[in-house]
Amino acid sequence: MSRILILDDELNLQKSLALFWAEKGFEVRTASTAAEGLAIIGDFLPQVVILDVRLPDASGLDILEPITKQSPDSKVIVITAHHDMETTIKAMRRGAFDYIHKPLDIDELEQSVARATHQPVIADQLAGEPRAGEGGQDYHRLVGNSKAMRQTYKAIGKLTTNLATVLIQGETGTGKEVTARVIHERSPLAGQPFVTIDCTTLVDSLMESELFGHERGAFTGAVSTKKGRLEMASQGTIFFDEIGELSPSVQAKLLGFLERREFCRVGGVQTLRSGARIIGATNQSLDDMAKQGRFRRDLLFRLKVATIELPPLRERIEDLDQMVPFFLRRINRELGTKVEYVEKGAGAVLRAYDWPGNVRELLNVLTKAVIDCKGEVLLTGAIKAALAHSSDKQGPGAAFPTLAEAEQAHLELALKVTAWNVSATARLLGVSRPTLRGRLSKYGLIRPENRQGGKN
Q1: Would the pTM count as exceeding 0.70?
Q2: Where do the structural domains in the chain lie, given as residue ranges?
Q3: I need a labelling partner for 187 at 20 to 30 A (CA). Which of 101, 350, 354, 448 fits?
Q4: 190-233: pLDDT as tens digits
């Protein structure tokens, strides 16, 4: 007979759950405080513990580790009214088997208990608090309480306790790099480098050098020895953005590194090692690409040790209630604006839109609307104008600019938004300052007051 302990101080809920599981054939014990629960655990050794976060004498999160120490085989299902990313990740990091929100969906809870009573024991979880990212947690945070996002938080929580290779899949603009940073900064690698490779911006001839580095004289233009991204990442994380764009030759070399954790710089003979965690992201189906022969199936298996599917914004519209104020605070901080309120009609307009550009488009729309607002209220008219501009750019009938034209226009818009603050523009675009300065030079973009000749 399976044993289950219900640790919750809501007596009506406690009794209801006890009756439900007793009728299912479980041997049931109940407790209303952390002390009572811990006293029962050692002798009862339940297969499953249903644990409320808020108890009269302690936080449920604080007794997760004592529970698993007394009864290592027990699976702890945390139930709570808290709906935020950090609490979810903290629970999973401390060893929770699952994390379910109140009001309880009994079918969801029953499915979780069924998994808990059949799943083999997993490796010990690492203890410790999640760490906020440098420069403020807002830039490295996911927002939303929809069911899809709660599943994402639980997946992230499990990945922060190990160094498994991860593949993050989702449409453009869903927050794949932010997700990778959240995993990194709440993992044992926190404090180590987080290095990004944008696989769409580097030509094949340079990709190998960027990844592995090169020795002086290895090729024309190699005037000095250069470390590659793997070497720079050291014991940290290297993030491959749009990894499906890697050429076949670089795919083969990356596979070799994943198998041996060794590499040589281009033109070098010394074998180097790197313990960097690999996180890849893609907006394409790598399974379809593998079937078509455009992506190595053996590399795909190596990357899919763990996967996270990020939902598009249109499938979690309810998250706008949290995302809009979150982004408004960020925009106010960056631009020095003071938009504190959202007109009721504006919220309805945002919820009616289908967001083909996902979270990235939402941030851009809100930024443009805030710039057009003169007071503290985000007006419906400003939102409509910003959405019209955005949908014109995304619509199927729109005239497509060249890639260079689109990049230049995007840079000009970002510079206007930040009043030519290079640091703020780099953060807004998610690139480094040197990369941004290189793009400004490429397109001859000069701060207006520094241009010669004045007005025509």
Answers
A1: no
A2: 3-116, 144-309, 313-394, 403-450
A3: 101
A4: 889 999 988 887 666 678 888 888 888 887 777 888 888 888 88
